[in-house]
């Protein structure tokens, strides 16, 4: 492709330029570039993790078939990123008629104005070049969007200035869709569009015409159309009308990350953790990252959280950023380096978590904070059992059972935390299970010590409270009364259903 300074600037120069012929349609262009990328083995959609064997093959099939399509999935499933990645399959630049509102092909103009200009100027018609980024047009659907916004409207001022009848095609003010001609037009949250607006879309999508103020206008647009929708929206806010769905070549389902490792890769790619510009300035150990991702997995499976709304991947991204910030705050106050995150920093990130999920009725009764804390405990238990499955915690648990207590919180410096932990037999040595020994930095050893304590508390071998720190596990089993006590309770009040109500 010629450099910008070498590109033809008139229709005649464009005709004479070697290798520049009538430009293909957008769908043919995308198909050709996609085939070239598949043959070269290059990445189809950079920055999208976890879809290589599920969503991407289906999307490739749709593009090879030259289909318009819809991505259907819950929030935070990279639907918009996939759509924006389509722009990389366009050519570097294409020639358009200079000054045309709908980026007309100079070899085959659509609008009446460009047809008249080509007839009058001939080979001297000015040509502009349109870069690929300008050929991607995206619109967020909202209920107040009108047909004029998307398709266009008759402009009486333009008619008056040019002395034209209102029915003349040159009086039309084009909307977003015609202005996306020779490019990609994407609509996010399609069900939010009113039904009559969707009718305008499917009519121009296939038949290529639309009526504006009672005037038929034929627009044979060259455009690849793509949509996104959340399944919840089908019933909660709106629906996609059947004729429009029928005109879409593919309905592609997206999904959340299927493994914890895959989710960690997404979060590591998106989260802002390196604050000072130096890689590793804030260290988030692997076990902290795993717990954060496991919280999202636990939330998606929890019956108290609305599954129709989903739990976005934005939650672990926001949480890991807040975890890093809490670790940074502690290190700044204590004057210690390096900055290392701990499991307790995840509890400090509750404000980044509670707004990221919708609760069912049972969850509303408990409250978002309570649910979030339970999710963290469950996540810690799962990760602890996977990374420290062989840990012999008996000496540690026995020390607590004999009355030992260990007050700790997320503000303790690493040296102070390790000094307190040294009172517990075998506690510091237990960090070897995650590859941390005395050669590691104090902040990293403190983080590993806290993992051991939090893991034992999450698996209910010891207890943890905000007021007293770590202490002996409290038995959850109710005390069974002796036979003599049972006999003395015969005259006790009874609860509904006839069962005796015992008092301890």
**Helix/strand/pairing class, anyone?**
alpha/beta
CATH topology of the largest domain: Rossmann fold
CATH superfamily placement of the largest domain: P-loop containing nucleotide triphosphate hydrolases
In the predicted model, the low-confidence regions spanning at least 5 consecutive residues are: 476-504
Strand content: 5-15%
Q: From the alpha-carbon coordinates, what is the Rg to the nearest angstrom?
A: 32 Å
**How would you classify the quaternary structure?**
single chain
Which sequence of strands runs across the widest sheet?
4-7-10-1-11
CATH 2nd-level architecture of the largest domain: 3-Layer(aba) Sandwich
- Continuous helix count: 21
What's the N-to-C terminus distance? 86 Å
How many strands in all?
15
CATH class of the largest domain: Alpha Beta
Mean pLDDT over the residues = 85
Helical content band: 40-55%
């Amino acid at each position: 492709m010629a450099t910008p300074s070498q590109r033809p600037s008139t229709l005649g120069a464009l005709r004479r330029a070697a290798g520049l012929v009538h430009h293909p349609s957008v769908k043919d262009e995308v198909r050709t570039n996609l085939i070239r990328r598949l043959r070269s083995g290059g990445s189809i959609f950079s920055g999208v993790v976890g879809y290589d064997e599920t969503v991407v093959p289906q999307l490739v099939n749709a593009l090879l078939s030259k289909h318009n399509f819809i991505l259907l999935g819950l929030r935070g499933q990279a639907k918009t990123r996939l759509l924006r990645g389509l722009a990389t399959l366009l050519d570097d630049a294409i020639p358009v008629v200079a000054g045309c509102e709908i980026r007309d092909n100079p070899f085959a103009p659509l609008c009446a104005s460009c047809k008249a200009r080509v007839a009058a100027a001939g080979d001297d018609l000015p040509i502009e070049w349109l870069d690929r980024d300008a050929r991607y047009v995206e619109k967020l659907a909202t209920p107040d969007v009108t047909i004029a916004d998307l398709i266009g409207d008759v402009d009486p001022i333009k008619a008056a200035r040019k002395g034209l009848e209102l029915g003349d095609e040159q009086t039309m003010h084009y909307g977003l869709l015609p202005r996306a001609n020779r490019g990609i037009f994407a609509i996010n949250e399609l069900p939010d569009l009113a039904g009559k607006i969707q009718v305008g879309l499917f009519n121009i999508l296939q038949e290529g015409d639309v009526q504006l103020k009672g005037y038929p206008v034929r627009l044979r647009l060259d455009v690849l159309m793509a949509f996104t929708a959340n399944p919840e929206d089908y019933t909660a806010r709106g629906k996609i009308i059947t004729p429009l769905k029928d005109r879409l070549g593919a309905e592609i389902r997206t999904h959340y990350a299927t493994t914890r490792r895959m989710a960690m890769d997404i979060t590591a790619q998106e989260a802002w953790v390196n604050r000072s510009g130096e890689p590793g300035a804030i260290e988030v150990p692997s076990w902290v990252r795993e717990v954060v991702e496991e919280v999202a997995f636990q939330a998606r499976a929890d019956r108290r959280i609305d599954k129709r709304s989903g739990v976005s991947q934005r939650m672990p991204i926001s949480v890991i950023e807040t975890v890093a910030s809490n670790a940074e705050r502690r290190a700044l106050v204590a004057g210690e380096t390096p900055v290392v995150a701990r499991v307790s920093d995840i509890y400090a990130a509750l404000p980044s978590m509670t707004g990221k999920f919708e609760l069912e009725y049972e969850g509303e009764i408990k409250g978002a904070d309570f649910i979030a804390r339970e999710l963290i405990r469950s996540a810690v238990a799962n990760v602890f059992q996977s990374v420290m499955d062989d840990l012999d915690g008996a000496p540690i648990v026995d020390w607590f059972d004999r009355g030992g207590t260990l007050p700790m919180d997320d503000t303790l410096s690493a040296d102070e935390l390790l000094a307190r932990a040294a009172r517990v037999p075998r506690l510091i040595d237990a960090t070897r299970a995650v590859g941390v020994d005395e050669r590691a930095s104090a902040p990293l050893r403190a983080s590993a010590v806290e993992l051991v304590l939090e893991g034992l508390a999450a698996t209910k071998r010891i207890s943890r409270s905000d007021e007293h720190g770590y202490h002996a596990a409290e038995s959850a089993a109710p005390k069974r009364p002796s036979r003599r006590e049972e006999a003395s309770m015969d005259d006790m009040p009874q609860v509904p259903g006839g069962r005796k109500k015992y008092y301890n």
